[in-house]
Batch of 4 targets.
Target 1
Amino acid sequence: MKITLGKLLPPYPAFAEGIRRAPDRGYTLSPAQTATALKNALRYIPCELHAQLAPEFLEELRTRGRIYGYRFRPPGDLKPLPIDAYRGRCLEGKAFQVMIDNNLCFDIALYPYELVTYGETGQVCQNWMQYLLIKQCLEELTDEQTLVVESGHPLGIFHSRPDAPRVIITNSLMVGQFDNQHDWHVAAQMGVANYGQMTAGGWMYIGPQGIVHGTFNTLLNAGRLKLGIPPNGDLRGHLFVSSGLGGMSGAQPKAADIACAVSIIAEVDPSRIETRHQQGWVQHVTPDLAAAYSMAQEALQRRQPCSIAYDGNVVDLLEYAEREAIAIDLLSDQTSCHAVYEGGYCPVGITFDERTRLLHQSPEHFRTLVNASLRRHFEVIRKLVARGTYFFDYGNSFLKAMYDAGIREVSRNGTDEKDSFIWPSYVEDIMGPELFDYGYGPFRWICLSGKPEDLVKTDRAAMACIDVNRRGQDLDNYNWLRDAEKNQLVVGTQARILYQDAVGRQTIALRFNEMVRRGEVGPIMLGRDHHDVSGTDSPFRETSNIRDGSNVMADMAVQCFAGNCARGMSLVALHNGGGVGIGKSINGGFGMVCDGSERVDEILRSAMLWDVMGGVARRSWARNEHAMQTSEVFNASHAANYHITMPYVANDNEIQQLLNP
């Protein structure tokens, strides 16, 4: 086995016009660190080519803040192909090539030339040399080997066994003393740290559909909890306002349409607006504030869904609503505030192009503008909330960014950020108690054949596994699948997301593997968003409704990762950062290839329950009411092989009497 880039230097590729490019990430290395960064990149290249490539790499580092190795990018659009079009010695090796290309194709990737899938900085790997070597490794991989990938680098192929993972991935798992944005930025420039986001570096992103379902669930349940909407109702006649139309945030208008709301979503990057408009994920576009709200008011009066992209800054959008006394029912934000000073948040008063120029020419001035804009953003939200708007942080580190910018009054306890903020995270109020605590989370599957008819068959099979009379969540999920084809959710390869609980996921997974075994469909990749019940420890998002003090611990995500490795998931990933930034989250996910075998059935029977119930158990131990109820039922129904430790709940009055006699 020989895996190498070879000594033939490929021609420098052309960059297609109209494809977004990542901004300069900032070059801050010392001369000694720069030398190390160059030597690190040249490790992938035969020595005969170093003299020619070293100047290229140095130019990339100085002008882009990263060494991407553009010369080694395959030409054109990396569209995912049917699995049979890929070379490989095992099915999993070919399946992961489908997923990587799906993450990097022009239709999905935010900055495809810089290997950024979504979230401003979330990369499949660091550079194109890594991409080519990973692809070669996957072509050579057998079902008795495991590929180890560390921060984008293919460390090597190691002997294992058929029921072991085929790929294990970690990204940016920094030692605690250095687990901060500054040291990570240095490490990324030096080519030793990769920001995997969540499903970018885990090769499991399926386009914005992956968050549409979660946003749909969030909006519906926010309406039920805060606006008095009945369990079987929708958001007709209600206005939702937010910002962001990128890879993740672009789901917002589509989800609002499906929930029958009226939505206005602000976006400063015209190319992102154009992408969502062309895809049909937002209905109307306007740069005029009055026109945006006028269209919204007309749709509200008709009680018809309507989505509007406002081509401008969200602060302007909100300040206009406050001045004109326009009622906003639901309010959020989905700018990439985990990278608030790296371009993820555009300050009010400047254009998107000015933002990009300042990032390169004057990053300190840009930081000052961001802080001032966050202050204005905070003040206008405070005024709108006082008038009755329900604002929720959408887990993008928005309120943490405000706190870090010096807006200390956003702290709930008035001292620090450990008890969260004065406005709730959507997980605190909605996703946690109504979904995660029951075990519902973003289960997903990809039809590796690339055939739309396979997706239709799997949709129908999954619908048949759902008991709509069990809980309201199940009825929502059934309706989601029923309307999925009509709502044209697929971007990239044929994939679907479905919020399901532990038993539901296991039942559907086993049904899919049976369908593959019978030849009804081609191979299927199962996975989930890391933003799930068990996969992520993040005190400002996924674990924000865990209030026993363990919200700052990362035990759950690491145990989930280790347990999935032990049970033989095909791919297992663990990252630092996620959607909230380096040092603020540890998150993990999996990929599982259904090949129709009994071996896969056995893995699914063990791993699917573990992957969910480990998190439900942790939430139950934190004394979350719905998680305790779910754990009690699980202990009774699975007593032969499982037992979740249950808490005794102290009496609050007795505790308070003791502390305050």
Target 2
Amino acid sequence: MSLKMQAVAGTALLVAGMLSLAWAYNYGGGADPGPLDRAGLAVTWGLPAAKLLCNLASAGTIGTLMLAAFALPRGGAAYFEALRWAGWSAAVWAAGACIHTSASFLFMANRSPAAGFDEAFLTFLIGIDAGRSGTLTILIATAVAISCSRLRGPRMLALTTVTAFAGLLPLVMTSHAAGSTDHADSTTALFVHSATAAVWLGGLLALMVLRPVLPPGQLGATVRRYSTLALVCFIALAVSGYMGALATISTIEAVFSPYGAIVLAKAGVLIILGVFGAFHRRWSINRLELAPERGGRLFAALAVAELAVMGIASGMAAALARTEPPPAATSGEPGPVLPEPGLWEYLSGWAPDPVWSLVCGFAVVIYLSGIRRLHTTGRSWPLHRTLLWLAGVAVLFIVTNGGVHAYQGYLFNAHVLTQMMLTAIVPLLLVPAAPLTLATLTVIARTDGSAGAKEFLERTVQPVLAALRRDPFPAVPLLAASLFAIYYTPLLDWAATGQIGYSAMSLLALVTGCLATAALTGNQDPGTGGAPGRRLPVVAGIAGLYAFCGWRLMEQAPSMELPWSTSAGRPWGQSPAAAAELAGPAMWSIAALMLGILTVMIIFRRESGPGDPRAGAANSHARSLREDVAA
């Protein structure tokens, strides 16, 4: 019965995807051959069909790896079956990428498959963006397939999962996002959209594959964990899809174009999938846990229907990649002219970023959910920590979505302002809010051998923080390495010209800033050798580091500003506020503010050290919280 349901699920996914692809491809005009077309129907239809195959196979790979990393106990039969399924999916992904790359060459060269491949094909693979992206996708998918056959430990699984996600980037970078009016933001939105869709679809497909080897009692827990991933994916899909649509559909006429109609149809399918998700969370999972055998059959029937709807969405997505966007999205006309930069423009500007919008939204919801869970145990959480967290997320949102983000693509000094706000100011608000303490108190540890949020924090973040709090001196070289990577490596160019590079730079700045701030402000036990007095020399070292880096930026800023594509011809002319040399004073000012606050915090903690009754009361309260939650 299980094998039959697996076959039905796979058939429903493929048939629905192909029928949806046929409708959307014809409706969008992609199937219409040009007057001088020599490639033929095989290439015309082979391109979207291969794209659909790549989408489904990459989803099978990524979703299964995520399920293995997040939901399955390590070492069991289901775990190893998941790795085998992910490896086979990656092999199919590589084969689909080969077909897609070959068809892309034939389409661009306007030749039929009978004409064969010659040295022009090699040139295409290494010299043309579409060919290079296809080659890179093939290599990544092949590497993932090989890795899945040799996976043993959790670190290798994590590395393989990250590599699989990276395999989505090449084709995303050469999609229609490159032709929109805001290439950077739409490219990032498309990557988030593709990645979350892969986790959602691939995870559900993996559950159907693994159902025969999952014990009835374990199936319910696995589905519940997958449901959490699916909820996150649904929200991310909705936000990224909306932002991506805004980049290509900006007028009423564009909405009613074939491209716009397919996008609206996809939005309708997403709503239907949201309804399926609600059924799973409120009905299917409860029945699985109360009556595993009967609930498993009901879950399988609902999953087959949901996979069919996902196939419809996948078919439309594959056709959309070959559908001409509305003329307004590809006209090449410049966007609205930014006003002359100033404080008001930085505060009132708006340049939404899908990645950081989602990060900020999830950060608020997860933190408040933790407080709510803590309150259910009869315990309270300090109000000032909640306010600090909300303020920190608000500043993070403004920096990554507001006027500073809008000018970051034009001005080098805005780039430095972004980096310093993320490194120095935002961590001063987020770290004292103690999110890891809240997680320790509220996240339930797993007992079945799988790894959840608590296990991830205990194995990765907490050991690093413990080491830094025992010895805060590594904070100085950590910040130095971050500044070097941001200003003296290709990351500077990537952050100037693309949203993916900007997101990488922002993440590096935020993480290193949080680690340094935690090293200087975190509580320390007197027996660990991390006395508060050792932190003041670290503050002095950081001050010297920022003084030297700011001086170097003042000298080198004009030449370092060259990656910013519009630096030579700004619409507001030679405004003093746009001078690249302002990068140095901006770094000094923000660093002085940060270091002053840190010094006050360190001195205050030193005065209320281990011997102070206030410190003892605080530590006792924290221990009491942990003991009560554990009980």
Target 3
Amino acid sequence: MSPTADTTLVHAGTFAVLGPDGGLTGRGGSTPDGLFRRDARHLSRWELTVDDRVPLVLVPLQEEEATATCVLTPPGTRDEPPAYTVVRELAVASGVLTERLRLVNNQPEPRTARLALLADADFADQFELRSDHRRYPKEGARRTAHAEPTGARFTYTREAWESQTVVSASPAPGSVEPTGSGAHRLTWNLPLPAHGEAELLLRVEARPHDAPAPAPVTDPASAAAQVRAEAADFLGQAPPTVPADGPAGLADACRQGLADLARLRVPATGPDGEEVSVPGAGVPWFLTLFGRDSLLTSLFTLPYRSAPAAATLRALAATQGTSYDPERGEQPGRIVHEVRHGELAHFRQVPYGRYYGSIDATPLFLVLLGTCTETTGEPELAQALEEHARAAVEWMFRDGGLADGGYLVYQPDPDGLVNQNWKDSAGAICFRDGTQAEGPIAVAEAQGYAYDALLRTARLARAHWSDPAYADRLEAEAAALRARFARDFWMTETDFPALALDGAGRQVDALASDAGHLLWSGILDTPRARRVGQRLLEPDFFTGWAIRTLAAGQPCYHPLSYHRGSAWPHDNAVIALGLARHGLRDELRALTAALTETAAHHAGRLPEVLAGYSRAEHPRPVPYPHACSPQAWAAATPLALLASLREVGQG
């Protein structure tokens, strides 16, 4: 058997995607391998040979306790079994990949084994890897590599930009030779006693431009110890308690989710320059501060861990828009969509260094600030971020569109994101026939977030900012928005809210899961909210594993589309919170049980997204082919499910 699954190790903004043999091949496309830090691949080749032969996989790479181990052997036969067994143990800490390679002699006489590692660093930007066809000009860029006494050093320069990857080994290699392609081959002649063994320690440092120094770890054990120590404050608190009648497996899913969230934290800076640790969205593509993802992840986690919420709010306040920059979508008061540190973002060849193309991050910032204050009972953060909150409110009215057209709207960005809600792929905001809505677009769920944001900010103003007049104004605006929404978004024929209003004010009539977010925000009245909640559990929406993004049977539906028929755990988590808010206990229990069973099929870890196939079509949840895993808001979903059960009195 030849296993093909990759293993992902991640810590503090650094991650490695490794093959079943512990190696790297320089693969690109939708499933790249490599060692990544700050949006760049710092190790692209890591290929082992023993006596000039590629070893076979006996036990594929498997992660356990912050390290991953595999067992290999050179080719052999029944009559001539392999001379060696190779055990590779790898771990990732901030900026570092470490490996302990142990070679065991299976023979009764001494031998000398020739080991070789082919190493290379292509410094590919993640946006290059994601786009197989687009090439970005890089005038003056230069990639060099040279041997060092203990390994090799790879360097990438472009103007003042410089990144390095340093490979070092103990014992030092006997030779380090270029291959002509930029890669270098490190070789050792290792003496092995009869039935004895030898060991190599390898360390790869990723040193991106203007990044903090890598962690001072020397081997997988010390790397794993650092990972565990930094996660202890997060994981060492009392674990969430699942009610006795809750779904079997929910406790396991919560534990796995917390473990993933601990590893997905990335360093960021608060408004006063303070260091904070925020939920990065996920690997391989989104291990960075993401407004919407980090906010919803923090909301889901808040009942059980408040640190992510406080850190996320501070980091987003520090990156809040202060001026107008059309290229990046920056506007005063607007909350950032994503922050990137890579080469293409630095040279503004992509707009995502600080990209503000999100219609919902700003109201969700206010929702999280209000919820965090109410949950913790501590007003200090709301007081410290008062100016940022007021600026966010003013953005919603001024540039967001509430003052002029009555709704939060976005214009499709041809150089960035065409859609700027959570369903941000091209074509996701569509009519039933599949036609993409044209802007300016008012998506339904963003209006609900705005409604909730206004009410929560009003409570902050009245309770903690000593400004009752401002609170009155926001409450009046929220009531007016709720009335407009009921008038303009409700589709009487289908008894269901429209996905959006297009630039001409037409109802975008696809039946979509976004309606479930309206239950959570409270913008729908109770009778309509309950009807929507019940409708979402009917078979065209509910696969038996999760609720689809679009109801099946519509011309626009596709079970393998990213946002037009797939099923997203975090989307379902928001729906679950809405079901709980409106007392839809039976629907909530059915959804929670289904998602918990889905997690069990993935060893307790919910993936970013699932294909839209139902239980009737396949007895197991069908994976979406390009899902990120681990993904922060999917990891936090079990915590939201648990909070939903508690809200309706299930324990």
Target 4
Amino acid sequence: MTARSQALEMLRAVARNDAGARIVHQFAADRGRIERMGVEAAGLYLDLSKQSWSAGGFEASLDLARTCDVEGRRDALFGGEAVNNTEGRAVLHPALRAADDADFRALGEPVSKEVAETRREMATFASNIGSGAETGGTKQPFTAIVHIGIGGSDLGPRLLWDALRPLEPTIDLRFVANIDPRDMGEALAGLDPETTLVVVVSKTFTTQETLANADLAKAWLAESLSPRRMVRHLVGVTAAPDKAEAWGCGRTFGFRDWVGGRYSLWSAVSLSVAVALGWDVFERVLAGARAMDEHFLTADIERNAPVLLALAQVYNVEGRDRHARTVAPYAHGLRRLPAFLQQLEMESNGKRVRRDGSPVDTATGPIVFGEPGTNGQHAFFQQIHQGPQVVPAEFIVVGHTSDAAVDAREGDAPLWSNALAQAQALMVGKSEAEARAELLAAGADAAEADRLAPHKTFPGDRPSTTILMDALTPEAVGALIALYEHKTFVEGVIWDINSFDQWGVELGKQLAKAILKDVQAGEPSAELDPSTAELMKRLMV
């Protein structure tokens, strides 16, 4: 048995023992729990004291991280080694938010100078559009941007825009990802082609959905603009600039193949957002992420926020058989965070083989889902409070969600008090005896109290983590996203999987191309299974 396997077995054994002790009782048994399981990093505060682990479970989790050499693998990531072993690539999203004088290297090749140059080009472009120096084909300033992408080319920039956009933006930024023409139709509604910039984001510039939408946008522009004028309205963001230019982009911004799609929002992929928010705001996002990078690199493992957040999930999955997690941001601006994390975590760690190709010996990443907090309370919180499955929760709480000049205790408290109450209720619950006593106190007779008490009982002892930030600043948003990126990486190290490839995306895309050929031919091919062939026939009518 390897050292890693032994550490996993020890974690599972301690977790089985922890199952006999309720979370709420751990505070009395472990007087230093709040201090040890609360950590500050890059302006965020994480409270992991409501997790199910005992002091022993916490230490067993730390031992597992040390045994798996999380610190060594972290250094390999930042050192530009081929941590994406199936594709032979470095993974250097931290280089994208590093200072201009940094010296990141991808497989030995210096990359920081190129990153800094691209940032300067982006800053100039953003400034010129903001000032009106950069105009469309008819010399009118741009008032709208249509950002076309999918997956990481959409979710990250969209999250940033939703989190930081002003109430009355000077540029109307709209996103299109779905290949359903309705998505593009809604995005273009009410816009003027002469004042609209179209930004097409595709790493390879071969992504089927993105190019289909890009063709629709180009056709819309062509109705009002000549080909010579239209090129000023088409910008490509890609690692394949030749393909973007051949398609019709008048200008391109590049990024390299060591930038993974779901880790790419720090690059030119967020050009649209940098333009619409202003370059100074985007730089502050990068600064927040850079601060989290520094924390991840330098903090001791037992005080390292991404490591501890990852270990809480590993403990729940490995030790307690909990294979789903909900994320509830109590801030409207973070409403896209659960969707962003679904891709970041499930595409990264939803793997069935280890780095060497052998079958996994763990469950790997759980299902991730969520909604903004108070909305979720009136939807799936019923399940996480009283359902038989235990679903760990993550609460993202913002102290000040608006700039309104009101006392925070009055203006923001109704929002964040709900978050604190939900976390408390999940942990403490309500016994049947307590429910019965409340019913009797409210005037129910004994028979009615006996009948209703089981329905009003909450098992409690359900774990959660709470992440606090003072305000939804660009720095805090950058730090939060980087926190989750590093958390995802740490989990991959512990599960011994490659968090940076996504082969599971490919098969369906290949088969979709084959089905489209059958559609063009007018009938299903002989190779199709009967069910798919029948569905195709019905849809072709």
